[in-house]
Amino acid sequence: MNIAVCENSAAAAEQLRGWIEQYCRLYHVPAILRCFSSSAAFSAWRERLHIAYLCFGGSAGFYQARQLRERDPECKIILVDDTQAYAVQGMRLHCTDFILRPVEFRHVVRSMDLALRGWQ
What we know:
By secondary structure, the protein is an alpha/beta fold. It has a single domain (2-116), classed as Response regulator (Rossmann fold, 3-Layer(aba) Sandwich), CATH 3.40.50. Helices cover 46% and strands 20% of the residues. The protein has helices at residues 10-26, 39-44, 58-71, 87-92, 105-116; strands spanning 2-6, 32-36, 51-54, 76-81, 97-100. Helix 1 links the parallel strand 1 (2-6) and strand 2 (32-36). Helix 1 crosses helix 5 (105-116). It is globular, with a radius of gyration of 13 Å.
């Protein structure tokens, strides 16, 4: 399973990555995590993603979610933002979850549980 963490802040990306790895270890989920620190790097990625945490924030995060949804309707998208402004728009894109910062481990557990429903 390919999981992307898209986050401008290296520290925040590392923390989120660590929590996802911890979840995968606890629940025996085989995963390869990829981190992207810019919208351009994420847009250039062409391999299939099963789960994508889009934490770029604001319109950049929403734009990436829209592009990813057009490219891969099956990818489970989790939007992460400082405000709730993009939560409704994210649901219109059929995002799996929306996390309002600050992100905590329990949020990662919920979003991973939602994303993995029905996973074989």
